[in-house]
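WARN no homologs supplied; continuing
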Amino acid sequence: MSTGLKVWLWIWFILNVLGIGGWVLSATVMAPVMAEMFGGLVTAVGIAGGLMNVLFCVVTTVGIGLILFGGKKLGLYLMIASAAIGFILNIIVGYNVFVALIGQGLVPAITFWIMAAEWHEFT
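OK structure emitted
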């Protein structure tokens, strides 16, 4: 595995772990505050959205880990699947198609681009 790919994957692995931690902290600390301010329904919707984000972050992080630590192509496939579902959900909730495409597709696309030269090394 090339140094560039390792650096890229480590950066995104760390950012995803921090993102998961931030969402969990936000859900546990801010949920009671939001319930006081806005009521239970708004809090439930916010927590459900946060849990979906955590789920996508976890799937992407597992994918990155499979590539980084196991040399598995399956990791890239997980990243692509997570991005595709996230893209569809972003469109459903009303994000701009271009913004959703960049937000969800850029990391898997760049990862594939870096992996392509050494694709045969992955199982």
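The mean pLDDT is 83.
OK
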